[in-house]
Design a protein that fits this description.
alpha/beta; six-stranded mixed beta sheet; four-stranded antiparallel beta sheet; 15 strands; elongated
Length: 385
Amino acid sequence: MTGSFTAILERLIAFDTVSSRSNMALIHWIGDYLKEHGAEVEIVPAPDGQPKANLWATIGPKRDGGIVLSGHTDVVPVEGQPWTSDPFKLVETDARFVGRGTSDMKGFIALCLALVPEMAGKPLTTPLHFAFSYDEELGCLGAPHLLKAIGQNLPRPRLAIIGEPTGMKLGVRHKGVYSFAVDVTGKDGHSSQPERGLNAIGLAAEVISEMARIYDGIRADGPFDRSFDPPHCSYNIGSIEGGTAVNIIARQCRFLWDFRAIPGGHPDQMLGPLTAFIEKRVAELRPIVPEVDIVITPRVSAPPLVEEHDGAAEALLKHLTGANETVSLAYATEAGQFQQAGMSAIVCGPGHIAQAHQPDEFIDKEQLAAGDVFLRRLIDWARVN
């Protein structure tokens, strides 16, 4: 690793880019750093007016066919976790770096930035691009806006390497994640006369029970992919809230759920029969309670990464790393979005996902050294290909 790596990682960790906050200060700091080294930088603001942005930068010729090094700039919250040090102040030990985002995934971004002088020092034949996004931790919300900009007015890359922590193993497939809100409207009234109202919490419980029944079918019938645990699509009810007081029939109830789809699976496996059940139940109740309603609203859509079987990204990383084996990843990344945008995509980066999202999050120096070797090989390759 270069001598500047630690200073860069320390600066990145110091930016509190928890997803609920702005990442603009970090984005501008990275942009200024890259411009100082001759990179062409584009900042792509969030389209909804949030104080957030993606960053796209290029070193080398401005043409199609480049390689993307992709990472997200946001991190998960630290509240309620028993940290033994300031999460936003880098701590270095003999074997590791500790701090929020060290593993997921500012360590990878710092490696990329520390090697920028190396990339810019000699001409590249193949351009190297940086794609740094926002709100990945909220469901890969930022990358689609960056990918739209690439499709419209930025050079189209050949392939994308998403540097999530894989222990430098080649992640060629992962599940997709889709999340939804369900809003249930009933009829309020005095709790002593429940038949005169319609309890939205009870109706939500009916919907949740039906989801469990549908899921039994998914577990039995598949589709299956034995490289994942569980080897089929899955779902989870993540939160529920409703009602106003114990002596009032609940008028409103809302619950949130997500669906994890294996490649080849789709949330329609749950949504199709669930929608049919809801429509039937609302039709039964509406003559009695006209205001009854159950509405499903999509919140997050991050598609699976589908294995390309010796696609361009896999072939290049096997060549550069010498690895022959590939792995399935239990977590979702932005790789599926890059793939759907027409690029070959793979997930490979230093660190381990078990170290992410934890108190005293850390990344081993040994992992960073392996990432550094890989990126240097990529730079050498880009000079002659």
